[in-house]
Structures are given as C-alpha cells and as structure tokens.
C-alpha cells in the first residue's frame, strides 16, 4: 500500500514539472521573443497574417518573389514551369506539416521540404541555362531559397 501511494505522489510531481517546463519553453520561444519581424522585413510582415514559424514565412515570400519568373518560364516550357511551381509549393506545405509533427515525422517532413527546395533551385538554374530567364531574374528568389535551405538544415533536415 505504501509503495503505490509513493508511486502516485511521484507521478503527480513529474506531471506538474512537465507542465511548468512546457509553459516556460513556450514563453522563451514565442515569435516576439525570437524577433521574427526584423529578419523578414517589416513591410512584408505588415500585410501577412502572424505566423510563428519563420521558415514558412520565408518559403512563402520566395513563392511571391518567384511567381512572375515562374509564369515567364511556363510560357517557354509548361512542364518545367509546373514542376517549379509544384516544388515551391511542396517546400511550404512540408514545412508547415513538419512544424505540427513530432519526432521522426518532423525530421522527415523537413527533409522532404529540403529536397523540394533543392529541386526548385536546380529547376531555376535549368531555366537560366535554356535561356528562358536571365540569372538576375532568379537572384532574389534563389537567395530566399538558400536561406530556407539553411534554416531546414538547422532544424535537422537530412538532405
């Protein structure tokens, strides 16, 4: 009888400790504590809904920057344009899904996003090689995709 009472008491203490730790973690790692607005650009952030996950914001910003370039590529080569569009969408969607996943599933989603990110960058280079667009046209978008790649690497992506 004493051992079960002691066990219940110890279990309750652990549960309370975990709850306190989670609250502290949420406060330390909130969007305002990380200073997300400084890194993205205030004008872009002002017209966007508030997001707590910076990688997703940068991926969506890359889509917005590259949209006219992808449309131009699509006029020359519909399949390549569609492939770039699908890959860019896959980056953002897998990042969002990975943000809500746990453990190995989280890393798998981030790895898939990193693979799609690499595919997008390679497809943009192919479009430049074929002469569909100029290197300066993809420069801003490529810098954003490079930033996404670095963030995904820090989050544990394996590609």
What is this entry, summarized?
This protein is mainly alpha-helical and about 160 residues long. The chain has helices at about 1-30, 30-35, 35-40, 40-45, 55-75, 80-100, 105-130, 135-155.
Jot down its keywords:
159 residues; 2 domains; 0% strand; de novo design (two linked rop proteins); mainly alpha; elongated
Topology of this protein?
Layout (H helix, E strand, L loop, with lengths): L1 H27 L2 H4 L1 H5 L1 H5 L7 H23 L1 H22 L3 H27 L5 H20 L5
- Which segments are poorly predicted (pLDDT under 50) over 5 or more consecutive residues? 29-40
Q: What are the secondary-structure elements, in order, as H or E?
A: HHHHHHHH
Shape: elongated
Proportion of residues in extended strands: under 5%
Number of helices: 8
SSE class: mainly alpha
CATH class of the largest domain: Mainly Alpha
What does this molecule look like?
The chain folds into 2 domains: 1-34; 40-154, de novo design (two linked rop proteins) (Up-down Bundle). The protein contains 8 helices and no strands. The chain has helices at 2-28, 31-34, 36-40, 42-46, 54-76, 78-99, 103-129, 135-154. α6 (78-99) packs antiparallel against α7 (103-129).
